[in-house]
Amino acid sequence: MSSAVEVPLESLDRALEVSFRDAALREAALTHRSYAFEHGTTVTNERMEFLGDSVLGLVVTDMTYRSYPELPEGSLAKLRAAIVNMSALADVARTLGLGQIVLLGRGEELSGGRNKASILADALEAVFGAVYLDLGLDVARDLIERLFRPRMEAYVRGEGERDYKTILQELASQELRAMPEYRLEERGPDHEKEFTATVFLSGEPVGTGVGRSKKEAEQQAAREAYARFAQQLGEANP
């Protein structure tokens, strides 16, 4: 590894409060495919992200299961989806400064890749995979719990705005193997637009929302769909 790369990548250890023994694993976890393509290497973080996703899922599922023994399966699924999704992962990645040290190709960097939720979320999962490979499950568990337990507890307390689109997407993917599809209608003059969003799962309408913006309408539709979905899982309405 060149000295120009080594110093910023080593800052990951300080952010995570861990010490990588294998610097190559750390670098691989931070190597986006765009960088690998431009530099003629086959090493990317995609395989490690695949592994880290499973490590993260195991640790968070175990953490929620043990922390809330009174919650039924449906509630646990909702809790897990709320604290582990692309938006949450990207947010955690930003607090760790991954956007500043992830290795990107020039085109991806120029298009704002250092702040893209998908790139940040994948990099964080790859980091978890690298920690697991290099330092073992106990260290990976301690790291993940340290990063996600405060979010879990805040969610249970009802703090913060809930991203119902992301929560619905996570639950639908896990339970139905389906992705939500949103269809929008708008009416009114430009200065007073009103949007109506309908969300579909497997081709069936499951929620409708109205708002002054597309985002607001889609969030309301996702909330309605989520409430129905949660009820099917034995949940109370949010």
In short:
The protein has 238 residues and is mostly helical. It is built from twelve helices and three strands; from the N terminus they run αααααααααααβββα.
3D structure, described in words:
The chain has 238 residues and is mainly α. 63% of the residues lie in helices and 10% in strands. It has twelve helices and three strands, in the order αααααααααααβββα. A hairpin with a 2-residue loop joins strand 2 (194-201) and strand 3. Helix 6 packs across helix 9. It is globular.
Defining key terms:
mainly alpha; globular
List the helices and strands and how they pair.
Layout: H1 3-16, H2 23-29, H3 33-38, H4 46-67, H5 73-83, H6 86-96, H7 98-101, H8 106-110, H9 117-135, H10 137-156, H11 164-175, E1 181-187, E2 194-201, E3 204-211, H12 214-232
Antiparallel strand pairs: 1-2, 2-3
Helix pairs in contact: 2-9, 4-5, 4-9, 4-10, 5-10, 5-11, 6-9, 9-10, 11-12
